Amino acid sequence: MAVEDRLKSLVEALTQALLPACDCRSEAESQAWQLLQFVTGLSRGMLLTHPGRCLPRAQHEQLAALVARRIQERMPLQYLLGSVPFLDLTIAVRPPTLIPRPETEEWVAWLINQLQPVRHEPLRILDLCTGSGCIALALAQAFPRARVVGVDIASEAIALAQENARANGVSNGEFVVGDVASATLSLAPARFDLVVSNPPYITQDEFASLAPEVAAWEDKRALVASEHGLALYRALAKGLVSWLDTQGILAKRGLPVFVCELGTDARPVESLFSPFFSGNVSLHADLQGLDRWLVGRI
Predict the structure, then answer these.
(1) Full-model pTM
(2) Which of 176, 178, 112, 115 minimizes the C-alpha distance to 149?
């Protein structure tokens, strides 16, 4: 085989093997490259610059094992790789903690941009249903004078968030186990300038139709909510009176004081939060044109 064809042949073989677990060929090829880069420790540019590079037998065996898990067990690629980029962070991921999504990254970037006028203020930020800690840590990194508290019901998620804080050198974020839906949830400080959340919002019927990469691997508690997907939104709306400082730094400047991610039906969620904010809520669309996050201002 010609030297220049060696890499092409390997990528093609990986792509073909991954097709059964992917929606299209381009996705399979992207995953093939990501696995190849992960196993070799080389960038795509380095691999393309040296297309005749021979992989040691151990790396071929590792690739085969990863592809087998991807196909046979439908293990998400992110869990196979062990981490995902999130803004300027590298977030470790492992089952069953929810994998950060690009749409979440999108609204967090939007929020950081909105809050630039107060980037040097000692903000108090609360992230409910924190999961891997990606939202809390992104905000803590962007606002180094802020104190950020992340809460999740799952102890394994809190342990992972704490690990991510250490790995990313973020010292102003802390994480505690707590039930957002519980009336006994107590936090210090008692009130915050900003409350954010990516709560579970999938209905049981929607969960039944999810791909196995999601349904079989990610924590159902982080995905599914009762009451037609609205249970955690209702808990958030009820809890805001206790958690949010309506005279805080952001409230006084008319900046967002509450942001939450949305599912497929935004209007019922908007109705839940509108009374608390006296109608001063807005829906924001993601890059695909879907209402993806709700913003409340005082």
Answers:
(1) 0.94
(2) 176
Could you please report the per-residue DSSP string of 164-204?
HHHHTT--SEEEEE--TT-TT---SSS-BSEEEE----B-H
Instruction: Tell the residue number behind the tokens 């009374």, with chain if given.
Output: 275
What is the end-to-end Cα distance of the chain in Å, rounded? 67
User: From CA 143, how far away is CA 87, in angstroms rounded?
Assistant: 14
The angle that helices 102-114 and 134-142 make with each other, rounded to 10 degrees, is 30
* Structure token digits, residue 113: 């941009």
| All domains of the chain in start order, with CATH | 3-73 (1.10.8), 84-296 (3.40.50.150)
Angle between helices 3-18 and 57-68 (to 10 degrees): 20
Under 8 Å between Cβ of 221 and 201: no
Q: What sign does the dihedral 56-62-65-71 (CA atoms) show?
A: negative
Q: Which residue has the tokens 């037998």?
A: 57
Contacts of 212-217 spanning 24+ positions with Cβ under 8 A? 212/74, 213/21, 213/74, 213/75, 213/76, 214/76, 216/74, 217/74, 217/75, 217/76, 217/79, 217/95, 217/96
Cα angle 284, 286, 289 (rounded to 5 degrees) comes to: 95
- What gap in Å lies between CA 147 and CA 125, rounded to an integer? 6
pLDDT at 2 over 60: no
| Residue showing tokens 């039930």 | 179
Per-residue pLDDT of 71-124, as tens digits, reads 999 999 999 999 999 999 999 999 999 999 999 999 999 999 999 999 999 999
CA distance 149 to 112: 16
